[in-house]
Amino acid sequence: MSNPISDATGMIPLPSDGQSKLSKVMETLVRTILPVVLALLTSVVVLIVIGKDPWFFYSEVFRYGVMGNGWQQTIRLMAPLLLYSAGLIVVFRGKLWNLGYDAQYLLGSVVVAGFSPMLIEVMPLWAAFTVSLIMGTAAGAAWTLLPAALKARYGTNEIITTLMMSFIGIGISNMLVRGPFQNPDIHVPQTRVLPVADMFPQIPGTRIHIGIIISVVVVLIIHLLLTRTSFGLRLDVFGSSPKTALHVGINSPQMILILFILSGALIGLAASVDMLGYQGNLRANINPGYGAAVLPFVFLGRLNILTTIPFVAFYCILDTGGRLASLDSGLDTHFLMIVIALILVFMSVIEYFGVKKDLGQSYLPPGLRRAVTGLFDRGARA
Amino acid sequence: MIDILTTTFIATFIAGVIASAIPLVLGSLGETLGEQSGVLNLGIEGMMLFGAYFGFVTTLETNSYFLGLLAGIAAGFVMSILMVMLNIWLGLNQIVIGLALTMIGGGITSVLYFSTYGQTTPRLGQPDVFPIPVLSDLPVVGSSIFQQPLAFWIALVLAFVVSVVLRNTNFGLRVRAAGQNPNSLDAAGGNVVRTRTYVALLGGAFAGFGGAYLALMSAGTFTPFMTSGIGYIAIVVTMLSRGRILWVIASSFVYGISVSVGTVLQLTSFDLPTDVIKMLPFVAVMITLIVFARSSYVPPALGVPYTRGAR
Q1: Beta bridge pairs of residue A202
Q2: Secondary structure in 3-state letters for A291-310
Q3: Of A102, A344, A382, B96, which is most buried, counting CB atoms within 10 Å of its CB?
Q4: Can you tell me the distance from the alpha carbon of B311 to that of B308, in angstroms, rounded to the nearest whole number?
Q5: B230 in contact with A, Cβ within 8 Å
Q6: Integer Cα distance of A166 and A284 in angstroms
Q7: Per-residue pLDDT reduced to its tens digit, B191-233
Q8: Pick the CATH number of A21-376 from 3.40.50, 1.10.10, 1.20.120, 1.10.3470
């Protein structure tokens, strides 16, 4: 396929000349926050249409996500999701699509959930943590190898291969939960529960485990890698123009492999951190679906890890609060999926208008423009 | 252990292959039309779910399979209007919008299903069959192939029509030109945006039909996320078939066989876990992709929005 993302949603530079700094900041804010606001407003309409009370729903989201101990849950959820978004940003910057995130996350989870109870019995706690984290990370990375190799060697469309690998990986993780990692003491298909004493210690005075510290440190290192090193520069050149990359001597197949492995590793690490810090065990047929959830936010953060952090925080509030609020309102938890999808749509539309404005063009595409002007111009044929 | 070679067993097996293949045939037909014109419809999963849900609800309320299928087609069509506006008219990123449409389709149908039928989980009865005279009296194939609902025959006729239209009509030529080289279509006086619009709307209708077929004819009920990746497999089938409808049908039936073989293996003494059976089609697809890695071909303009005069 020729480059399918010539209009990569997140990579369009904002205008730099002829504008005051303030209006630039305003425009950036509008372009990043308006999609979220519009999506929330539309979701209110959706709630009214299906006969639910939107005010009740969103006040419950706020109550569970921020008030009381909610903020601690929110920060707890940020630990895996920051790593997750870093994993997506790395490949998206190279204009590669890793859509196999669900399997990479679940395989990381299942490996940690399966092996860490055994590891804890044979080695000191810190060593067990280290080995578990490495295993989970490796599991996530390993699941990207085949799509990456096919893309690097034959240029096979990675969207398709990662999606197919995703379904296979989800199946394998379910098999592992039901098979070798099944908790022998119970009949429900789930792995052995890690005792709380053998999980990540919590930050004193809170219920937030130290996974958030690991996550922030790793994410900052990745940010420095992407923005302050020659690797980051080569990655950006590769992402913005494969032809230029060829001319300046960047090894594209190697770059594709590195990016996919890094992405899978970060997603696997995210899963391991959440498993060791919070979940403690894995049940069959559970798919948290975090990948699709953080997807719009890495674009809104313009594929920059630092600017993505506030969006991830926002999503974590929505997620922690939304799951409980859905229960209270008698809604399916997949309601959040609609909100996420709406953010994606509005983001793309607003980005389109922004680019048109920068280029000094009409906001309307030619076809639509004819249709609209045709209404007022009866003589002319649309 | 069941005896595999009884005639009833073979007949059930063939019927199972057809039941899982036809939704994929329909989805792949729609996807083929779109991809030939340069539109990558990654939201086909969402469109199929839309078609499945609204088809199911309509049949449940009216007891009419015909109206159910129509409602499914309409639901897919309505969703493709959104795709046409965003992807073709505005030229937004087709992958991002495709993912969004998949989430919208899955989210809305499961929220609606949860709030209306979540407690009762109703099922539909058997659809009326449309027996072909004489042939339906044959042993084995008679009860499996020639006693299918009318929708089965409609699907096959549609496949034939799409094949003829793509190959032998001016419209088909315009569609393929829009995917191969939109600039030359424009230069020759064709309208790229209009061509892609028609084709994408048709594709949505096909996806909706496929979803409705899955819910009404194959499964007899709706469950949230029941398509479980068929839409994505349709994209693979399309990429491997390169616009040749016979290949679309053949590879869809290979998929159907891999689904049915899983069920058979489970019924016989092999006792495979359900997880393996669910994975089987995806493993088959992955192996196909590895073997034919070099020959999966897509039109050069696929996924690239058309801007007149842009280089």
Answers
A1: A209
A2: HHHHHHHHHHCCCCHHHHHH
A3: A344
A4: 9
A5: no
A6: 16
A7: 899 999 999 999 999 999 999 999 998 888 899 889 888 999 9
A8: 1.10.3470
Quickly list DSSP for A220-262.
Answer: HHHHHHHHHSHHHHHHHHHHH-HHHHHHTT--HHHHHHHHHHH
Coil/strand/helix, residue A283: strand
Contact B240, B292 (CB under 8 A): yes
- What is residue B123's DSSP assignment? -
Instruction: Report how far residue A215's alpha carbon sits from residue B207's, in angstroms, rounded to the nearest whole number.
Output: 41
SS3 B131: coil
Q: What is the DSSP letter of B124?
A: -
Residues 286-345 (A) with a CB less than 8 A from some CB of B? 292, 295, 299, 330-332, 334-338, 340-342, 344-345
Alpha helices, H only, chain A: 21-49, 54-65, 70-93, 101-122, 125-142, 145-154, 158-178, 211-228, 230-240, 242-247, 252-274, 290-300, 305-329, 335-358, 366-376
The answer to whether the CB of B237 falls within 8 A of the CB of B251 is yes
Structure tokens at A351: 């980005």
The CATH number corresponding to B7-123+145-291 among 1.10.3470.10, 2.30.40.10, 3.90.226.10, 3.40.50.720 equals 1.10.3470.10
Per-residue model confidence as pLDDT tens digits over A305-331:
999 999 999 999 999 998 889 888 888
ipTM: 0.88
CB contact under 8 A, B111 and A334: yes
Residues with Cβ within 8 Å of residue A239, at least 6 apart in sequence: A8, A11, A93, A94, A95
A290-300 helix and B94-116 helix, angle to the nearest 10 degrees = 140
* pLDDT for res A100: 92
Cα angle value A327/A330/A336 (rounded, 5°): 65
CA-closest candidate to residue B234, choices B216, B256, B219, B218: B256
Q: Is A363 on the interface with B (CB under 8 A)?
A: no
The half-sphere exposure of A345 on its side-chain side, counting CA atoms within 13 A, is: 23
Put simply, the chain A residues between 138 and 167 with a CB less than 8 A from any chain B CB are 146, 150, 153-154, 156-157, 159-161, 163-165, 167
In B, which residues are within 8 Å of A299 by CB distance? 96
**Dist. CA B235–CA A160, nearest whole Å:** 8
Identify the pLDDT of residue B269. 59
Residue with tokens 């027996």: B131
Nearest CA to A212 among A221, A204, A202? A202
Whether the CB-CB separation of A106 and A170 falls below 8 Å is answered with: yes
Half-sphere exposure of B16 (CA within 13 A, CB side): 14
**Any idea of the CA torsion for A128, A131, A137, A142, to the nearest 10 degrees?**
-130
- Separation in Å, CA A382 to CA A109, A376, B84: 57, 11, 19
The Cα B216–Cα B122 span in angstroms is 12
CA atoms within 13 A on the CB side of B249: 12
Please name the residues in contact with B197: beta carbons below 8 A apart, sequence gap of 6 or more. Answer: B84, B88, B89
Taking CB atoms and an 8 Å limit, are B112 and A161 in contact across chains? no
Asked if B111 and A335 come within 8 Å (Cβ–Cβ), the reply is: yes
Q: What angle do CA B227, B231, B233 make, to 5 degrees?
A: 110
**What does the alpha-carbon distance between residue B259 and residue A41 come to, in Å, rounded to a whole number?**
42
- B 63-82: CB under 8 A from A: none
> What residue ranges of chain A have pLDDT lower than 50?
1-15, 378-382
What are the tokens at A354?
Answer: 């922004």
